Amino acid sequence: MISLRHIYKSFDTPAGTLAAVNNVSIEIEKGDIYGIIGFSGAGKSTLLRTINLLERPDSGTVIVDGKQLAELSKGQLRQERQSIGMIFQHFHLLNNLTVFDNVAFPLKIAGMNKAERRKGVEECLSILDIADKIDAYPAKLSGGQKQRVAIARSIANHPKVLLCDEPTSSVDPQTTGDILKHLAHINRRLGITIVIVTHEMDVVRAICNKVAVMEHGVIVEDFEMNNSNYVPKSKIASYLFKSENFYAEEVGGSLHG
Ligand SMILES: Nc1ncnc2c1ncn2[C@@H]1O[C@H](COP(=O)(O)OP(=O)(O)OP(=O)(O)O)[C@@H](O)[C@H]1O
């Protein structure tokens, strides 16, 4: 579903050129919940953002659902991005719009008429169990409710892929469980492939079936979570395999294990 091949992305900094992502190749299959973990500054968010070309790699190839994104025209890329949803740590809702208008926004851009937009918004809000907030403004919602609205918005155009950048880092553990339950649900029921950047090992244990560990811009190891014979190489992966699955109950047991 997603092939990243030899991705390189650097930034100019006062200290010189920084290789935030340095020759990374990964393959993500349809239906995966693929975790990208690593310490702060490892390059996780930058790598995630290359998948929809929010960050254009300096070199390397990004292929999503068979299409090489860098080769598309502006219009084709806009179209293709509709099949790649994204959510963020700080939700990125438009505060001057109601929940309805936030979720309807991508549908309007996709050219849907009013009746289609209403139907689409109602469907997505009901999948996320937040239909009762349709007329509320984001300021009146809790962090967990805001993230559920953001997820509803991200799936409004029926994407094939959902990119999640630290989706639970701004909420408490109970709310994290609720958000994970909804992410697991849209993966299972709607068949949406999920890529998730997180520093929370409980989140990875609860929903990821595959994991890549990043350090200093490179992938130092990748593995399947249900491989009980796997011997972790990095410190962070060793930690990942050690502890209990805190959110297992919320997502209905180990999702892929
Ligand atoms: N636009 C930018 N300009 C300059 N440097 C950047 C830019 N974006 C990221 N970086 C740098 O690239 C490196 C990787 O950043 P990135 O945000 O991808 O890491 P991360 O693993 O997601 O870290 P965190 O968990 O702290 O967000 C960091 O050193 C960061 O400071």
Number of strands: 10
What structural class is derived from the secondary structure elements?
Answer: alpha/beta
Strand-residue proportion? 25-35%
Count up the domains.
2
Report the order of strands and helices.
EEEHEEHEHHHEHEHEEH
Largest beta sheet: strand ordering: 6-7-8-3-9-10
Q: Main β-sheet, in a few words?
A: 6 strands, mixed
Note the main attributes of this structure.
four-stranded antiparallel sheet, binds adenosine-5'-triphosphate, 257 residues, six-stranded mixed sheet, 33% helix, alpha/beta, Rossmann fold, 26% strand, 2 domains
A few lines on this structure:
The protein has 257 residues and is an alpha/beta fold. The chain folds into two domains: 1-83 and 160-257, P-loop containing nucleotide triphosphate hydrolases (Rossmann fold); 87-158, no CATH class.
Protein model, in words:
- The longest helix is centred in the C-terminal third of the chain and has 18 residues, at about 175-190.
- The chain has helices spanning about 45-50, 75-80, 100-110, 115-125, 145-155, 175-190, 200-205, 235-240, and strands at about 1-15, 15-30, 35-40, 60-65, 65-70, 85-90, 160-165, 195, 210-215, 220-225.
- By secondary structure, the chain is of the alpha/beta class.
- The chain contains 8 helices and 10 strands.
- α3 packs parallel to α5 (about 145-155) and α5 runs parallel beside α6.
- The protein has 2 domains: about 1-85 and about 160-255, P-loop containing nucleotide triphosphate hydrolases (Rossmann fold), CATH 3.40.50.300; about 85-160, no CATH class.
- A hairpin with a 2-residue loop joins β4 and β5.
- Strands 6-7-8-3-9-10 form a 6-stranded mixed β-sheet, sandwiched between helices.
- The structure holds adenosine-5'-triphosphate.
